Amino acid sequence: MIQTPLGEWERVREETTGSVFLVGKFLQMPVSVALESADVEQVDFDFIQDKMSKFAHIKRQTELFFERIAKSRPDWLGMAAGARLADYRDCVACPEFAFGSGTESWSIVYRESVFPIAEPYGILVNYLGDDVVGFEDISDAEEC
Predict the structure, then answer these.
(1) Cα distance from N-terminal residue to C-terminal residue, the chain
(2) CA–CA distance, 106 with 98 (Å, rounded to integer)
(3) CB-based contact 119:105 (threshold 8 Å)
(4) Spatial separation of the C-alpha atoms in residues 14 and 3, rounded to whole Å
(5) What pLDDT, in 10s, does the model give residues 36-81?
(6) What confidence tens digit (pLDDT) does each residue in 73-121 have?
(7) Among 50, 144, 69, CA closest to 114
């Protein structure tokens, strides 16, 4: 375990790739940081804290993003043409934050979602700063 500005986290090495991650929780939400090296000093904990502290706002932006996609391209979300949701609030839930060690781009895997493409692993949403820039269908991933 390593003491960080956001609490006690663990350094984990992924066996198959050798990638090193710093893994922990902040504000009761899981977070991982991909480390370019094993050096924790390169991690921008202020950036991580800022994004995670704004989660309510970021989640709402994400819901609005998916509402626009569901209305214009429901097939991208695995929905049938013409399918509609009455309310897009809470269309994503159970966030897991993922950061790099020195970039403005970051992601959240929402482990639960109303969209069919979220089965079985969730849906990966990419951000640049505070803005949603896209999403990825991770349903075909071997393991997530």
Answers:
(1) 23
(2) 6
(3) no
(4) 20
(5) 766 777 889 999 999 999 999 999 999 999 999 998 999 999 998 8
(6) 999 999 988 777 777 888 999 999 999 876 789 999 999 999 999 999 9
(7) 69
% helix / strand / coil in the chain, to the nearest 5? 25, 40, 35
Side chain identity at 81, as an amino acid letter?
A
Mean pLDDT of the residues in the chain: 90
Which residue carries 């989660």 as its tokens? 55
Residue 98 contacts residue 75 (beta carbons within 8 Å): no
Q: For residues 22 and 30, is the Cβ–Cβ distance under 8 A?
A: no
Q: What is the pLDDT of residue 100?
A: 87
- What is the number of other CB atoms lying within 10 angstroms of the CB of residue 54? 12
**Cα-Cα-Cα-Cα dihedral sign, residues 103, 56, 95, 84:** negative
Record the pTM.
0.89
Q: Residue 22 CB: number of other CB atoms within 10 A?
A: 23
